[in-house]
């Protein structure tokens, strides 16, 4: 049990490391050279760098360290070691990429390409960090702290407020409204990609099957797919007759097999398929 726990912790920190590497590369190569600020403290750091010349890795640490301390005092140990690790190592990798590439490196200058690919990579990085149960500090931490004192405003709304201010600031300091608009594109893409990595990669399919031959279908599912089947008692509103509805949750790669099983036994069966974003229990995630 202890070895399994150590392995799980190691995987988590490896994911956080890989995620911050990807984020750092996106910030240095795509976003910062174009003053595209995809929200968050890293976006604010890009804006500050544009105004004052202070490197984004230093600003990232300077803002996140007080936030982290305030978070520990306000929220307890919830954000813990993984947040501290993610915050620190992101700045380390930003500085590493700046040093490796040197002052004359060629960055992507096309604003559309920079916002698209920068947002994509930041989303992948954040998604991996969140997947491991960590954060890189920033507006999610600030939102959680403020929510403690203003519970009537949700954390996502507070985060969105911070991010919109940062996005607007990017256009102001760059004196181009296009910069704000491209920053919104990068922010939107990064949020969607992060959500996909955290939730949608685990999605499964739930089948509701109404048939006159439920037991035959259920037996074939148990035999050929090795998936559990639940029988739900129901009644047809029009006919008034009792029905047995089969409920079965399967992986994406088993969808076609299940459809074929149902069709081969009862081609007139009524089948409803819905997406399930997370399944916990035997045969799926613990």
UniProtKB/TrEMBL annotation:
Report which superkingdom the organism of origin falls in: Bacteria
* CDD domains assigned: YitT_C
Q: What is its membrane topology?
A: Multi-pass membrane protein
Q: What is its main location?
A: membrane
Location comes to: Cell membrane
Per its UniProt record, what Pfam families does this chain match? Answer: DUF2179, YitT_membrane
Q: Which Gene3D superfamilies match?
A: 3.30.70.120
Q: InterPro entries this protein is in? A: DUF2179 (IPR019264), N-reg_PII/ATP_PRibTrfase_C (IPR015867), UPF0750_membrane (IPR051461), YitT (IPR003740)
Q: Which residues cross the membrane?
A: 12-31, 78-98, 110-130, 150-173
Q: Which residues form the DUF2179 domain?
A: 227-281
GO cellular component term, pick one = plasma membrane
> Which PANTHER family is this protein grouped with?
UPF0750 MEMBRANE PROTEIN YITE, UPF0750 MEMBRANE PROTEIN YITT-RELATED
- What name appears for this protein in its UniProt entry? Uncharacterized membrane-anchored protein YitT (DUF2179 family)
Q: Which organism is it from?
A: Anaerosolibacter carboniphilus
The organism that produces this protein has a lineage beginning with: Bacteria, Bacillati, Bacillota, Clostridia, Peptostreptococcales
């Amino acid at each position: 049990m202890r070895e399994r726990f150590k392995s799980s912790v190691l995987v988590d920190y490896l994911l956080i490391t890989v995620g911050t590497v990807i984020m750092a590369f996106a910030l240095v190569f795509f976003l910062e050279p174009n003053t595209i600020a995809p929200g968050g403290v890293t976006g604010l750091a890009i804006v500050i760098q544009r105004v004052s010349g202070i490197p984004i890795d230093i600003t990232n640490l300077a803002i996140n360290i007080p936030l982290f301390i305030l978070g520990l005092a306000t929220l307890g140990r919830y954000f813990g070691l993984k947040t501290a690790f993610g915050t620190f190592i992101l700045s380390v990798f930003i500085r590493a990429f700046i040093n490796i590439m040197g002052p004359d490196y060629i960055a992507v200058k096309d604003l559309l390409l920079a916002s698209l690919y920068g947002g994509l990579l930041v989303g992948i990085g954040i998604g991996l960090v969140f997947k491991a149960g960590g954060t890189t500090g920033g507006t999610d931490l600030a939102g959680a702290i403020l929510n403690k004192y203003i519970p009537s405003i949700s954390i996502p709304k507070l985060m969105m407020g911070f991010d919109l201010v940062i996005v607007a600031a990017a256009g102001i300091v760059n004196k181009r409204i296009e910069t704000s608009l491209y920053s919104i594109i990068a922010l939107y893409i990064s949020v969607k990609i992060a959500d996909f990595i955290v939730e949608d990669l685990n999605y499964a399919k739930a089948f509701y099957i109404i048939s006159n031959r439920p037991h035959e279908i259920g037996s074939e599912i148990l035999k050929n797919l090795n998936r559990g089947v639940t029988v739900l008692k129901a009644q047809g509103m029009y006919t008034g007759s009792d029905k047995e509805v089969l409920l079965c949750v399967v992986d994406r790669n088993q969808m076609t097999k299940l459809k074929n099983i149902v069709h081969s036994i009862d081609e007139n069966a009524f089948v409803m398929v819905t997406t399930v974003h997370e399944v916990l229990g035997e045969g799926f995630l613990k």
